[in-house]
Amino acid sequence: MTEPPARLPHPRRHWTPGTCWRCEAREVPVLWLGPVQTSSGTGSFTACDPCVRRLETYVRRELALRDTAPAF
Ligand SMILES: [Zn+2]
After folding, report:
1. How far apart are CA 3 and CA 31, in angstroms?
2. Which residues contact 57 (CB under 8 A, 6 or more apart)?
3. Sign (positive or negative) of CA dihedral 32, 63, 38, 54
4. How far does the centroid of ligand 1 lie from the alpha carbon of residue 47, in Å?
């Protein structure tokens, strides 16, 4: 079994106590991932470590698909 790749440092990676907007866990360390725009306005999307890892999987999949998409 291979180890997952080390996470790259990110200048805005700052874990703070809060609520995960993905799994709704409360009072856990969360990371700000970006703004969320809805019809009600813009919010700050934060997620806990397990959810961040899951979202990173989605991002890696999307990037892999983008890299293999034909160029037009
Ligand atoms: Zn979560």
Report:
1. 23
2. none
3. negative
4. 5
Q: Please state the pTM of the whole predicted model.
A: 0.72
User: In this structure, what are the phi and psi dihedrals at residue 7, rounded to the nearest 5 degrees?
Assistant: -75, 140
CA 72, CA 67: separation in Å to the nearest integer?
13
The rounded Å distance from CA 26 to ligand 1 centre is 9
Å from CA of 33 to ligand 1 middle? 12
Q: Is the Cβ–Cβ distance between 47 and 24 less than 8 Å?
A: no
Residues with CB under 5 A from ligand 1 (ion): 20, 22-23, 25, 48, 51
18-38 confidence digits (pLDDT tens): 999 999 999 999 999 999 999
